[in-house]
Amino acid sequence: MLMRNLTLFRFSPAVADDLSRLDEALAEHRLRPCGPLEMFTKGFVPPVGRGPDAPLTHAVQAYTLFTVGGEDKLLPAAVVNAELQRKVQKIAEEEGRKVGGRERKRIKEDLLTELLPRAFVRESRMSAYVDRKNGWVVLDTSSRKSAENALSQVREALGSFPAVPLAPEQGPRVLMTDWLANGNLPAGLALGDECELRDPATATGAVAITRRQDLDAEEVKEHLRNGKAVFRLGLTFDDRISFVLGEDLSIRKLKFLDVVTDELGDSHGDAAAEADASFALLTLELERLLAKLEEWFGLPRPADA
Fold first, then answer.
1. Which tops the pLDDT comparison, 271 or 290?
2. Whether pLDDT at 40 is above 70
3. What stretch or stretches form a coiled coil here (predicted)?
4. How close are the terminal C-alpha atoms of the chain, in Å?
C-alpha cells in the first residue's frame, strides 16, 4: 500500500487524543451501496481485507490507516437531456401544444426516476492516515477539493475533526525558486528532472513546464532570469524518495526508490502481514520527509485551545 500523491493537513495534540475512538466512530458510517434513486453514497471501507465485518482502520504504532469510499451513478446530462427533448417533441407532435417550464421540470424528474435504477455505478477509494504522534493527516490525492471532501466524512463520523491546511512560515515559491536558481538545497535534497515555472505577477502569464530535463540547464536558468518563479519542483530526498512538490506543498508523483522497495522483500506470507510491512515502511519514510518539510518551510503544529 504505497501512496502516489499527498495532500497534507495538521492537527493539535488534543485532537490526536480524540482519534483513539476513530475505529468506533467510522463503524457507524460504513459505505453502503447506492439505492435505486440515489445519485451517490459516501462512507468508509476496510483499508485492509474485505467483508462486512472487516475493520475500518488499520493501526501500526501511532499511525492509523483508513479509506474513504464512494459510489456514484453515471447518468450523463447529455443522455437525460436527449431523452427529455424526445419526450417534449412527442407531446408537441401528438397534442399540438408547447411544453412549459414547469412541465419540463416534472418530465425531467420522472426521467431521473426511470433512468437512475439502470445507471452504471462507479466506485471510488481514497486512502489516508493520521499520525497521532506528529499531528499529520496524509491523504492520497493531489486535489485539495477531494481531500476536503474526505475530511468532511471524518468530521461527520467524529462530530468534530479540526484538521487545518498547512500554514508555511517560509513562502514555498520563494524557497523553491532559490533552490533551483542558486542551488541552495538543504542537505539530503537533490533536484529531480521536472519543474513548472510561471510569472508570479499575473495569473495569465507565460508558463514553462520541463520534464525529463537537467534542471541546471541554461534554458531553465534563462526562465528564472526573466522573472519566473517555481510553482512545482521535482526533488529527490536522501536517494530514497522522489516526488514533485507544489507551491501549495502538495506532493505528486511520489515514488519510493529501489533502495526502499527492496527493504520490503518479496513476500510476507499473508495479506495482513504484507499490509503491515508496507504501511510501516510508508509511514517511516514519510515521517522523515514530513519532518524535513516542517523544518524547511516552517509548518507549525496547531496548539491546543
1. 290
2. yes
3. none
4. 35
